[in-house]
Write a structure and sequence with these properties.
The structure is a homodimer.
Chain A lengths: L2 E3 L5 E12 L2 E8 L9 E2 L2 E3 L6 H13 L5 E8 L10 E9 L16 E5 L10 H15 L13 E2 L1 H12 L5 H10 L3 E7 L9 E5 L1 H9 L8
Parallel strand pairs in A: 2-7
Antiparallel strand pairs in A: 2-3, 2-5, 3-4, 3-8, 6-7, 9-11, 10-11
The structure holds a DNA duplex.
Chain lengths: ~230, ~230
DNA sequence: ACAAAAGTGTTAGAATTACACCCATGA
DNA sequence: TCATGGGTGTAATTCTAACACTTTTGT
């Protein structure tokens, strides 16, 4: 197929900042580029938007194609349109933030054989294009969003201990939180409920597992709530 | 000029939701469409992104071309990419929110002779394309942003009374605010300072004019503040 | 018995909310 | 002198933040 236009129009891509939580650290998914420009450099997963798919659809497709990921949370972040952000031609990219539990997803080799890997966000390599700026903005969004929406649960297993949840929040907001205040606040919301399961085989008092109450969350969302989580 | 691509790529436009404050009401700028589709319908100002301009640049250009507006505040909102949002062909649009003081800008006739006019946001006409949804999302952004960033000042004259400022906030957040509490809170921030001017010729006690202290705002912004305005 | 993290309340201080009257001005 | 909105303080309540010891479990 070839299409002809009366004037130049920018190419359109999507790029995804996929965050995970592993070994008590926030990690980000990167893809090693196989071709020029920036061959051998790490970059965000993404690619061109097809003419017959939505933006969200393109983001989901790229994540499946490039890493075999099926995502639990996907949110549009910002659209980047600097003139020189791609050295080949004008490319505008719609950036997304996605959250995933790395333990539940084996990273599959990309369909075009490029490597995909998780990196600690604080020790990530230099990135291709303007992806550095995109990751920074995604971190900002994550940090501000986590304060009033319970998005963090997408990063954890279905059941989790309160300490795990607190560590996740601490990693995202970048400071230590008070254990008792954190538990009071998070439990008062009623969004997470205790199960009757406990940790097993740990050399200490076993922690109770909790689970996210999606029904209650949906009910709250209806009535236009204001969370103020931490 | 004609450009040929190996595969279809969506067309890219910008659309602007321009808010103003007039007669104690929040108003939005609309343009009457001259051509199909939606000829005669009102729509958001906007148009195609040229290959040699940034997204912000395209938004600014369209506002000048279509309404003669030079804007004080412009912020990217969201990118809309539903497949059928334009009946002619696939068009992805990057939406912007802009704030302007209508009293300081005479609306100029559009370069292609379409009408531009302000409408009370609550009594706006039915809009072309998916512009209804874009305006709704812009209102949400305005309402949430105004709570922690002092963006409202772009909508007022350089000097304003505290009652004018309070009315503006009330219109945006959609509820009455307590006069004493509002003044305490807004003055404690130190972002607005009294002038020695007062209203003249009003049949009541004259109100003092205040002005926004941009220097202080920039200083606060540096140190990563958290406003919590109302 | 020891090491290691789980679990649990109280109190002081800060912030928020509710609330009513006198004042200045022009007509 | 009257009508109109401008301007001002306090007290009750709620929310936030700081803080330490006992419990459970496996080795």
């Amino acid at each position: 197929m070839a299409f002809t236009y009366a004037f130049a129009r920018p190419a359109l891509t999507v790029d995804c900042v996929v965050f995970g939580f592993r070994d008590q650290q926030l990690v980000v998914l990167l893809i090693e580029r196989g071709e020029q420009p920036f061959a051998g450099k790490w970059a965000l997963p993404g690619g061109f938007v097809h003419d017959d798919e939505t933006l969200d659809g393109a983001a989901e497709r790229e994540l499946v194609e490039e890493a075999g990921l099926r995502i639990s949370y996907l949110e549009q972040l910002y659209t980047f349109g600097a003139l020189d952000r791609d050295p080949r031609e004008r490319v505008v990219t719609v950036a997304y933030v996605a959250l995933v539990n790395p333990a539940q997803h084996e990273l599959r080799a990309s369909t075009d054989a490029r490597r995909a890997a998780w990196f600690d966000v604080r020790e990530r390599p230099a990135l291709a294009f303007d992806h550095e700026a995109i990751v920074e903005q995604a971190l900002e969004r994550l940090r501000s969003k986590v304060r009033y929406r319970p998005i963090g649960f997408g990063l954890l297993d279905d059941t989790f201990t309160l300490t795990e949840l607190q560590k996740l929040y601490e990693v995202i907001v970048g400071r230590a939180l008070d254990k008792r205040n954190f538990r009071k606040k998070i439990l008062k919301l009623g969004l997470i409920v205790p199960t009757d399961q406990k940790e097993r085989g740990v050399p200490r008092r076993a922690a109770r597992f909790f689970t996210f109450d999606r029904g209650r969350y949906d009910a709250l969302t209806e009535s236009g709530f204001d969370l103020e989580l931490i």
